[in-house]
Amino acid sequence: SAKAEGKGAARRYAVALDEKARERRVIEAGLRRALAEGELELHYQPLVDARTGKITSAEALLRWRHPERGLIPPGDFIALAEETGLIQPLGAWVLRTACADAARWPDTINVAVNLSPAQFREQTLAQTVAEALSAAGLPPERLELEITEGVLLMDEQQTMATLTRLRASGVRISMDDFGTGYSSLSYLRRFPFDKIKIDQSFVRQVPADPDSVAIVRAIITMGACLGLTTTVEGVETTEQYDFCVAEGCDTIQGFHVSRPIPLGAFRALLCEPVCQPAA
Ligand code: C2E
Ligand code: MG
Ligand code: MG
Ligand code: MG
């Protein structure tokens, strides 16, 4: 009957929810172990100067080297870390590790660290950043913090206070995934960013699609007018790379230059030319 069928569906639904909750607990426990046992690692993806083709910085991208499941990308566990509060110790680990790694690179190379909105919930974020810098002996000017619009949707006063404090200490602030949010432009006015990173979705159909071309061109021009550094993310082809150079963006990041790579491989890359200078 329909009633029995309804009951069955409800039970299957409850079982599915249970299953989901169980899976989350397993991942959460695993993530705690990962932190304690050193299963987390940072891979680095270079950003190159569009004019010289030389590496100017690297973005630290978190990976979890799971003993059975192999390398797990951040998209599979960051959200859970945010929901469980684990993002606090995890984020602090990322900051400490990235600063310590960068302190051993040439001092012309900056390091960029992604911050999750949840990290701004703690009043201690600016302190955590300061401690990571001083423990590593890294000058604040060499650290770039990447935030998305999500950060600015948090408690605005506290977020602004933290960002202002960070920036006053010399750390640079980048707006990540620019153009994907609802109010990217109004945030540019409310906070003095140092850099905008144009989201990779915009470069995907460059140079074939005239609208994409127009949008990337307009954002680069706007960034220059506001005195901001512009980066195009997600550059995968020679055509896309050449387009970004021709449009005058400052730095370029994407698989065309290099994928994110382990620390050792990144250090080796610093010793060889990656891209040709612009003609
Ligand atoms: P994001 O900050 O926008 O980082 C760029 C993402 O695009 C990275 O993915 C990178 O591997 C990928 N990417 C770079 N170049 C290309 C390209 O040419 N083509 C394509 N298809 N993809 C490209 P990943 O490493 O999987 O990271 C995904 C997101 O996870 C990051 O996006 C960032 O929001 C977050 N994330 C990564 N590491 C951390 C971290 O330490 N803390 C926090 N809170 N979030 C992190
Ligand atoms: Mg980023
Ligand atoms: Mg991005
Ligand atoms: Mg992103």
TrEMBL record:
Residues 24-274 form the EAL domain. This is Diguanylate cyclase/phosphodiesterase. It comes from the Bacteria. The chain holds residues 509 to 787 of 787 of the full protein. It comes from Sphingomonas gellani.
